[in-house]
Amino acid sequence: MIDFLSKIKGSASVIRSSYPAGFSPTIAVIRELGLHSSGSAKIMGELKYSDIPHFEITRGSKTGCVLFCRIAKKDVLVYNGRFHFYDGISMRSIAHKIYVLKMLGIKRIISIDETGHLNPRFNCGELALIYDHINLTGDNPLIGKNEDSLGVRFPDMSNAYDKKMFSAIRAVLTDAKVRVNEAVYLGITGPNSETDAEARFYRDTGSDVLGYSMVPENITAVHAGIKFAGIGLITRELVADRMMEDTRSDKELEAHRAAGYRKASQLLSGLLEGIIKAV
């Protein structure tokens, strides 16, 4: 059986062998499929996830790919389509894909995740800039034998969302006169929506937004020594009591979510070049 570290090296080797000539990224972006791309981004090549050994994929992620991009005069590696715990991808497999970035020499990650807002002052279609998180997934990608070459057994999470990256992104949003929703991200498993009682409890924890995917990526990145920034695309309102009063059908709620996603992703698309330049 191939050991965990050898699998990471194997995946990284195949990705590196697919680099365009002269491509040498130190920044990676993790995003959902369907997210609007920056108009200034130049895609120089791509590699399907299904062609990368040891990349555990599901039906939802099999169409994803690694993009080799040039943004703001920087080489940027993009995971186009993320891997979700709720799809049956193990925490260890999610971690695998972050450790691959470490092997590729990535120093900074920008993770873009769809979120629902618990904070009543936030609105759908806006961006949340993550400065901390609470892990309520009931799991952790670091459980199991620690590989010392990847990181220490007990990583310090006091700067989980890198303060310098946070400040740089905040300045870009402020300069563009975009509302900055500084947020604590609550990580849960999904995929079902939240009950009114859960939404009230989650808000009482001090969380502003919630999502299903960013927390294991962040924990692994911190373990691997990679600086990490998180941006939430706010698409659902999860404000207790308001949810009880909402009489919309599932179809109407989905249409509202999709509209919020389009608005937030288009907003971020216009800012991404400045963000990449700043970090």
Describe the model.
The chain is 33% helix and 24% strand. With 279 residues, the chain is an alpha/beta fold. Helix 4 links the parallel strand 7 (181-187) and strand 8. 42% of the residues are buried.
Give the rounded overall mean pLDDT: 93
Q: H/E order of the elements?
A: HEEEEHEEHEHEHEHHH
Helix content: 25-40%
Q: Judging from the principal axes of the Cα atoms, what is the shape?
A: globular
- β-strand percent reads 15-25%
Number of helices: 8
> Structural class from helices and strands?
alpha/beta
**In which order are the strands of the major sheet placed?**
5-8-7-6-9
Poorly predicted regions:
none
The number of distinct β-strands equals: 9
Largest sheet: 5 strands, mixed, barrel
Radius of gyration from the alpha-carbon trace, in angstroms? 18 Å
**Straight-line N-to-C gap:** 40 Å
How are the secondary structure elements laid out?
Blueprint: H1 4-17, E1 27-31, E2 42-48, E3 65-71, E4 74-80, H2 91-103, E5 108-117, E6 127-135, H3 163-175, E7 181-187, H4 196-204, E8 209-211, H5 214-224, E9 227-237, H6 242-245, H7 250-269, H8 272-278
Parallel strand pairs: 1-4, 1-5, 5-9, 6-7, 7-8
Antiparallel strand pairs: 2-3, 3-4, 5-8, 6-9
Helix pairs in contact: 1-2, 2-5
